[in-house]
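Human: We require from you a protein record containing the residue sequence and its fold in token form, and nothing else.

Assistant:
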Amino acid sequence: MKPNPGGNEQLTALAGILLVLFLAVEGATLLNVEGLLTVHVFVGMFLLPIVALKLGSTGWRMASYYLGREEYVRRGPPAFPLRVVIAPLVVASTIVLFGTGVYLLAVHETQGTAVLLHKASFIVWFAATSIHVLARIAPMLRGLRARYPGLALRLGLVAVVLVAGAAVAVGTLPAADHLQDQLTGQVDLDAR
């Protein structure tokens, strides 16, 4: 199979645009997270496979570049600050943010140290990811418009990831609902 850095760039762009869209929905839930916790968790769980796809496609590009694969080396690395400062912050904070979110759902916690870590990682993640998105928006749009061999395969992979996201989100919906009920009880919203 011939290396296809353009195809990888396009797959990364497809995952990126999905993340931008669904993260906007996730961000909107922060305006009233106590009342929208079920939606917040549902969207967060839906995002897991998309995040994995994005981390995988960018990880592939990075590994291919540093392993000296000619086609990737010819394209060059991302700008130095993005590669050395922003990318590690985005990856680490993404792992902590989503990892703590999954943990909180699994142990049914709505307060405590893990919640604080989730919130703190969001602040780091939001700052680093905002810089990343602003720096990569033009290449992402070019990648979406370009025509590279294997588009049907990439679109199929994206479809599988979306179905997987929906399955994870629906499968964890009862736990998300339980968290919402637990939080609502804590802040006494159900009291009459």
In short: The chain has seven helices and no strands. Residues 5-185 form one domain.
